[in-house]
Amino acid sequence: MHSGLNEFRSYKLESLSLDAAWLKQQTGQFALLFRLLLPMRRISSGRSVMTQRQKLVLPGGHNKLLLHSCCAPCSGEVMEALIASEIDFSIYFYNPNIHPQREYALRKDENIRFAEQQHGIPFIDADYGLDNWFARAQGMEDEPERGKRCTMCFDMRFERSALYAHEHGFPVISSSLGISRWKDMQQINDCGARAAAHYPGITYWDYDWRKQGGSARMIEISKRENFYQQEYCGCVYSLRDSNRWRKEQGRERIKICDKFYGQPEAQE
Ligand code: SF4
């Protein structure tokens, strides 16, 4: 297809916002054509986003995936994309970085609710392991986000994911970590590939979940599901640094387990 047409369609998909009431009033082929071609999803702000899902295919012709999940907001869109693509997958929740424990419990419980209870997706709870995480983070306490501590943190999570995949017959691993615009995609992909390289039969899938409207749908789903809206990456050092930054901005400290998507004050 001509690239200009692709760009035009992409612009339409990403930016066109139609009021549902207006759309209902439309008769004739124009509105009908839009409805047939493009599935419309509601977001809680009252606007609508036009999206079109691409059918995803795992590398190597496989159809079984172990998806490491960091939290419900990041994995919600990833899960829906995989379900729409009829890919057989299980969620692997191993996030020993998250501090404090009640933050960890909330992030995990929401993930279980969405995966297991709403979609029937197997959820593997790899438990906590905060002591191990602190042991590996020693000497990196003052590293900035996206620095060496984060490489260690991603390595640790992917290493356990790859080991589990190896022991339980998953030929492909991936993670929801990369969908966040705050993360360095290359850093995450390097860690994932490094972990998978320990096992000849395992491939790391470096699919860019932000593409094809993924970032917008991530927010859309989070609002629809009223997911907890975490305000720092996860570890105690990211909490400290986020609070330092907020203080500089004259903002109040982060309130743990307090903010949810879909609330009037929630920001994208
Ligand atoms: S900032 Fe996030 S990715 Fe980096 S070490 Fe902390 S929890 Fe891990």
UniProtKB/TrEMBL annotation:
<keyword id="KW-0819">tRNA processing</keyword>
<feature type="binding site">
    <location>
        <position position="71"/>
    </location>
    <ligand>
        <name>[4Fe-4S] cluster</name>
    </ligand>
</feature>
<keyword id="KW-0676">Redox-active center</keyword>
<feature type="binding site">
    <location>
        <position position="150"/>
    </location>
    <ligand>
        <name>[4Fe-4S] cluster</name>
    </ligand>
</feature>
<comment type="similarity">
    <text>Belongs to the QueH family.</text>
</comment>
<feature type="disulfide bond" description="Redox-active">
    <location>
        <begin position="233"/>
        <end position="235"/>
    </location>
</feature>
<comment type="function">
    <text>Catalyzes the conversion of epoxyqueuosine (oQ) to queuosine (Q), which is a hypermodified base found in the wobble positions of tRNA(Asp), tRNA(Asn), tRNA(His) and tRNA(Tyr).</text>
</comment>
<dbReference type="GO" id="GO:0046872">
    <property type="term" value="F:metal ion binding"/>
</dbReference>
<keyword id="KW-0411">Iron-sulfur</keyword>
<dbReference type="InterPro" id="IPR003828">
    <property type="entry name" value="QueH"/>
</dbReference>
<comment type="pathway">
    <text>tRNA modification; tRNA-queuosine biosynthesis.</text>
</comment>
<feature type="binding site">
    <location>
        <position position="153"/>
    </location>
    <ligand>
        <name>[4Fe-4S] cluster</name>
    </ligand>
</feature>
<keyword id="KW-0004">4Fe-4S</keyword>
<keyword id="KW-0479">Metal-binding</keyword>
<keyword id="KW-0378">Hydrolase</keyword>
<keyword id="KW-1015">Disulfide bond</keyword>
<keyword id="KW-0408">Iron</keyword>
<protein>
    <recommendedName>
        <fullName>Epoxyqueuosine reductase QueH</fullName>
        <ecNumber>1.17.99.6</ecNumber>
    </recommendedName>
</protein>
<dbReference type="Pfam" id="PF02677">
    <property type="entry name" value="QueH"/>
</dbReference>
<dbReference type="GO" id="GO:0008616">
    <property type="term" value="P:tRNA queuosine(34) biosynthetic process"/>
</dbReference>
<dbReference type="GO" id="GO:0051539">
    <property type="term" value="F:4 iron, 4 sulfur cluster binding"/>
</dbReference>
<feature type="binding site">
    <location>
        <position position="70"/>
    </location>
    <ligand>
        <name>[4Fe-4S] cluster</name>
    </ligand>
</feature>
<keyword id="KW-0671">Queuosine biosynthesis</keyword>
<dbReference type="GO" id="GO:0016787">
    <property type="term" value="F:hydrolase activity"/>
</dbReference>
<dbReference type="GO" id="GO:0052693">
    <property type="term" value="F:epoxyqueuosine reductase activity"/>
</dbReference>
<keyword id="KW-0560">Oxidoreductase</keyword>
